[in-house]
Amino acid sequence: MRRILFATVAAVVAVGLIAGSAGAAKHKPHAKTRAAGAANITDLRLTPSNAQLAACMPHARVKVTVRSTTDQLGFDKFKVRARHLAPNRDFTVFLLETAGAPFGAAEYIGDITTNKNGNADNTFRLIVDEAFSSTLVNGQRTRVDLNRVGMWFADPADDDFCPAAPGVNGVTPFDGDNEAGVQAFNSANTQPLPAP
Questions:
Q1: Which of 178, 167, 175, 116 is closest to 150 using CA atoms?
Q2: What are the extents of the domains in the chain?
């Protein structure tokens, strides 16, 4: 029964994708979700956090791909593929309540490290689709979804190559040692990640 149901769902999805592509625009959206077997896949394009950083890294590209596999594997796969960023640097990656300042609640999920060409790839295993922060405020539980993404220069000195960027030469708390540079990229220009 399960195989028949899966085959039926796959056929409906395939027909929907074929029908939907007939009138599709020729440009690629910044965020998209598609079915792939038993997992949903969401693609996001992160963009520089401000115009000055965009000018300092004009060819930078950051793609985040989330494979929603918690129901099957107990975790989701969160892949970061970065190209043409500042070379030989560590970047911290966070799930956020809000993509830009003041960010709200934040969850540190790991780092990526660029090579001499400014490229990096890393895959994290965590629960993404249901990521949230919870706290007590005046005795009441408050929950916020963490469905935005941000990346920071992990070292405060790593953003100094772009002196015109706001906040450069300052220290932010977005690293495990509580000392990071400015936010480099975020998902402000994309759809939020899926939420429960």
A1: 175
A2: 28-186
The CA-based angle 84-183-168, given to 5 degrees, is 95
Could you report the per-residue pLDDT of 9-50, keeping only the tens digit for each?
A: 333 333 333 333 333 333 333 445 555 455 699 999 999 999
pTM of this structure: 0.76
Positive or negative CA dihedral for 34, 188, 48, 89? negative
Where in 69-147 does DSSP place strands (E)?
Answer: 76-83, 90-96, 106-113, 120-126, 132-137, 140-145
What's the rounded Cα separation, in Å, for the pair 4 and 12?
Answer: 12
**At 22, phi and psi to the nearest 5?**
-60, -40
Q: Which residues of 70-108 are buried (b: 16+ CB within 10 A; e: fewer)?
A: beeeeebbbebebeebbeebbbbbbbbbbbeeebebbee
How many C-beta atoms lie closer than 10 Å to residue 192's C-beta? 15
Tokens of 33: 């979700």
- In the block, residue with structure tokens 């929950």: 143
